[in-house]
Description:
Oligomer: single chain
Bound molecules: pyridoxal-5'-phosphate
Number of strands: 12
Amino acid sequence: MVNKKFIYADHAATSALDPEAFEAMKEFLVDNFANPSQPYSFARNAKKAIQNARKTIAECINADEDEIFFTSCGTESNNWVIKSILYQNQKKGIITSNIEHHAILETCKRIEKFKDYYSTYIQVNSNGLVNPEALKKQFNIYNDVYLTSIMYANNEYGAIQPIKELASISHQNGSLFHTDAVQAVGHVALDVKDLNVDMLSSSAHKFNGPKGIGFLYVKKGLDIPSLINGGSQEKGKRAGTENVASIVGMSTALKNNCNKLKENAQHIIELEEVFLRKLKESNLDFICNTNVNHIPGNISLSFKGISGETLMHRLDLKGIMVSTGSACDSVKNQTSHVIKALGVPEDYAYGTIRISLGKENTEDEIEEIFIAIYEIVKSLTA
Length: 382
Ligand code: PLP
């Protein structure tokens, strides 16, 4: 359980492990330590547990079980997808956007170092959305696009992209379509068949699963090149003895979250509305960067004339955990590429924090977060 001595409002960075997931994992950490690839009876439970987990995860996103490949995290899933282009001789282009996570952007930069391979970046509009017309324009310029990769929801301001439409445009232009759904899976209803995406990345620790485990959905019939060569695990595409306990924990957490999607969302949205109302009624000078359909509770705020970094640390001193942007950018301590992409004016951009609420947060906590922000921002601008 989250240490209740502090208020945790950074659920987009990571989330607390679901106690039921932890219980389910224990068996495979302690008693049943068998290698699931072994043929003897002791290994049967582990093998069965992996099969069940794959089925459960597939059901949560309306996939088939043989379309789910276990990976170690969202970053790995994204790397697998992007680097698969290097096995292509004909189509050498990737279309992506300028608000993607570093796991996509840095991997695209890597493939650009190979001769003839390229990536191109769509600029989002002022609401932080990829305009379908902007994607069409890219296809007018480039005719050898192998893959389009657009995130389902942004990790800093939460906006949900028009994925179904973007996937359809990509297919009409002969490109595969991938979505980085790390912030979305387990938080919003998601149906890969309806979206008609070819690949989708996910990570367990964002939906109350354990860290170090994720999955990649790959549509049936698409023969993605192997990521790791070795044994026959994951149909030989991602070899290596399976992380049985984490796979079981991931599927338990996802099932529990998906069973309560509406209930959780309703609770979080109520908290978010209370919080934003209080902020708007205060006389603080700020911009809310989250203003379209978004992941419940994921709010980006830019306060005028202060440092987001200072605000984050002062909140920390009061026992409140928020972030200045994504976990990665907060280490680098600079305005993130995402906030720059949104065109937030500089005197506000520097004062950006991300608050990401979770199902465990309460109205009392929201009140405390609001009061703390109010007092700190007031003192910093006095
Ligand atoms: N993609 C997005 C949108 C994310 O928010 C993150 C993590 O913050 C990742 C990818 C990387 O996921 P992981 O931490 O599992 O590698």
